[in-house]
């Protein structure tokens, strides 16, 4: 896997803390491995939208990576509920189902960005930097794949 | 069977498998299947409902499934990690079908996809006149991958969705 300049929180220089939400254990592991190469720390995982909401309340992560198609409660609904209670929540939808209608619905309900599966690490890295832009730093002059 | 419904699945499987395995793949055969589906390796099934209805079974040779799981997990996966290999096949099915669904939706077809489930029984349902099954065989450097697609266009559901706005 490529090496990336770590993305840190600007206020304290600490690693970005992630909550990963996906009904596939395999997808969660894969995303966790990816964000660790960005210098991130996975502080929690959830397998459906209901657990995602309770885990967000408990952990208040810096970023949530959220799948859409999940049992019990789908990702867009979970994102909407999280953002309603926590307007500053940074939620990035990560799904293989990336049609325009779905993306627009996710963004309208508070998600900050959308990444389509299969996830390319360099794409996710740029999205993380963008979403953390008010609060995240990466060493100047170094980009994806550096 | 309408080929405009099937082509996105072929394109998506080609792209996702090539990325997942890190090598090119070839479509070796394409046939209609009138018999009940027989599982060949590790399989996952996805159901669609709405304007397009039916199911897709994604079936991977054990050797190819292990290689896919190893590549996706970033660690060597052996036959003893059976659950992890099954999960990998489900996730790959999710990605292939999700990408195809994206294309179909952007073309104006509206339907819902349920999360993939492991397909563990030896046989699947037999296709009918309404829902013919198309079987695609992909040859990869690690083994064979099969996709069995049984879908039909359901005009009534499409009209209902259009009327609902």
Question: What is the fold's blueprint, element by element?
Answer:
The complex is a heterodimer of chains A (146) and B (165).
Chain A: E1 8-9, E2 17-21, H1 25-37, E3 41-46, H2 49-59, E4 63-66, H3 75-85, E5 91-95, H4 100-108, E6 113-116, H5 121-131, E7 136-137
Parallel strand pairs in A: 2-3, 2-4, 4-5, 5-6
Antiparallel strand pairs in A: 1-7
Helix pairs in contact in A: 2-3
Chain B: H1 3-21, E1 26-33, E2 42-50, E3 52-60, H2 62-73, H3 82-106, E4 111-113, E5 117-119, E6 133-140, E7 143-153, H4 155-164
Explain what this protein looks like in three dimensions.
The complex is a heterodimer of chains A (146) and B (165). By secondary structure, chain A is α/β, with parallel strands linked by helices. Chain A has a single domain, classed as Response regulator (Rossmann fold, 3-Layer(aba) Sandwich), CATH 3.40.50. Helices cover 38% and strands 19% of the residues of chain A. Chain A has five helices and seven strands, in the order ββαβαβαβαβαβ. Chain A has helices at residues 25-37, 49-59, 75-85, 100-108, 121-131; strands at residues 8-9, 17-21, 41-46, 63-66, 91-95, 113-116, 136-137. In chain A, the strands form two sheets. In chain A, strands 3-2-4-5-6 form a five-stranded parallel beta sheet, sandwiched between helices. In chain A, helix 3 links the parallel strand 4 (63-66) and strand 5 (91-95). Chain B is an alpha+beta fold and 165 residues long. Chain B has one domain (3-155): Chemotaxis protein chec (3-Layer(aba) Sandwich), CATH 3.40.1550.10. Chain B is 40% helix and 31% strand. Chain B contains four helices and seven strands, in the order H-E-E-E-H-H-E-E-E-E-H. Chain B has helices spanning 3-21, 62-73, 82-106, 155-164; strands at residues 26-33, 42-50, 52-60, 111-113, 117-119, 133-140, 143-153. In chain B, helix 1 packs across helix 3 (82-106) and helix 2 crosses helix 3. The model of chain B has no long low-confidence stretch (mean pLDDT 82). Chains A and B meet through helix 1 and helix 4 of A and helix 1, helix 2 and helix 3 of B.
């Amino acid at each position: 896997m490529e090496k990336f300049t770590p993305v840190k929180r600007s206020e304290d220089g600490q690693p970005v803390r992630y909550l990963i939400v996906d009904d596939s254990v395999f997808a969660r592991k894969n995303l966790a491995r990816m964000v660790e190469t960005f210098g991130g720390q996975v502080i929690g995982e959830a397998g459906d939208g209901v657990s995602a909401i309770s885990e967000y309340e408990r952990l208040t992560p810096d970023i949530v990576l959220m799948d859409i198609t999940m049992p019990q409660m789908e990702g867009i609904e979970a994102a909407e509920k999280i953002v309603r209670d926590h307007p500053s929540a940074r939620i990035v939808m990560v799904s293989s189902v990336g049609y325009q209608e779905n993306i627009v619905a996710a963004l309208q309900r508070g998600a900050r960005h959308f990444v389509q599966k299969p996830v390319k690490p360099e794409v996710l890295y740029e999205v993380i930097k963008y979403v953390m832009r008010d609060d995240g730093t990466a060493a100047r002059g170094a980009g994806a794949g550096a | 069977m309408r080929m405009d419904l099937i082509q996105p699945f072929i394109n998506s499987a080609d792209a996702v498998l090539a990325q997942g395995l890190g090598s090119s793949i070839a479509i070796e055969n394409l046939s209609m299947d009138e018999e009940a589906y027989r599982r060949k390796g590790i399989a996952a099934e996805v159901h669609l409902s709405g304007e397009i209805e039916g199911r897709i079974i994604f079936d991977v040779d054990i050797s190819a499934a292990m290689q896919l799981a190893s590549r996706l997990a970033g660690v060597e996966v052996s036959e003893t990690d059976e659950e992890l290999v099954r999960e990998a096949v489900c996730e790959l099915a999710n990605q292939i079908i999700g990408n195809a669904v994206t294309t179909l939706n952007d073309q104006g077809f509206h339907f819902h996809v349920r999360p993939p489930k492991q397909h563990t029984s030896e046989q699947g349902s037999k296709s009918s006149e309404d829902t013919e099954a198309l079987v695609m065989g992909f040859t990869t450097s690690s083994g064979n991958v099969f996709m069995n697609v049984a879908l039909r266009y359901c005009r009534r559901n499409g009209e209902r969705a259009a009327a609902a706005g």
